[in-house]
Specification:
Blueprint (H helix, E strand, L loop, with lengths): L3 E11 L6 E7 L21 E4 H11 L4 E8 L6 H14 L4 E5 L4 H4 L10 E4 L20 E4 H7 L11
Parallel strand pairs: 2-4, 4-5, 5-6
Antiparallel strand pairs: 1-2, 1-3, 6-7
């Protein structure tokens, strides 16, 4: 069976979707339609383009350089395509074990914590964008209700642990 995804696009060398230089995979489709959404073009689940797992892997691999620190999945909402995204992350983990994986979702962690794909993710940025809580000073998120959850430490502690930037 061929795995397919609805892709909005891929951006190389992002510095706003997690620490360091990152490849960002934008998945198509989001049911929330948050007022003030900065990715409105990605809301429609039928827009973008349908690609096979092999096609998107080739595009991602072409965007990765020796300076790339990680891969971020954004959208839309990647959790609308959990099986396909899980297969993609599994393959990227095998091919690039040194890269960290971040994911943005409008869902709260507590709503999606049992999805298998989250076992493959290092940091989850959860929660819908809330216009009244918009804060341009926040790092890697748009509104104050959103959390940066260190999923590795959360799994170890069996409670939500917020991600902290590394100290040098």
């Amino acid at each position: 069976m061929t795995i397919k995804l609805r892709l909005g696009g891929i951006t190389a060398n992002s510095v706003v979707d997690g620490p360091g230089l990152r490849t960002v995979v934008f998945l198509q489709g989001c049911p929330r339609h948050c007022p003030g959404c900065h990715n409105e073009a990605l809301l429609n689940p039928q827009a973008g383009r349908e690609v096979t797992l092999e096609e998107v892997l080739a595009e991602i691999k072409a965007s990765i350089s020796p300076l790339t620190q990680g891969i971020t999945f954004s959208g839309g909402d990647p959790l609308l395509q959990p099986e396909a995204v899980s297969a993609l992350v599994r393959q990227l983990r095998a091919d690039y074990p040194s890269l960290d994986v971040w994911m943005y979702t409008g869902y709260l962690y507590e709503e999606v914590k049992d999805l298998p794909v989250l076992q493959l993710v290092d940091v989850l940025v959860d929660g819908p964008f809330v216009q009244d809580k918009k804060d341009l000073e926040l790092v890697f998120r748009g509104s104050a209700n959103q959390r940066l959850i260190d999923l590795v430490k959360t799994r170890q502690a069996a409670e939500v642990v917020q991600w902290q930037p590394p100290t040098w």
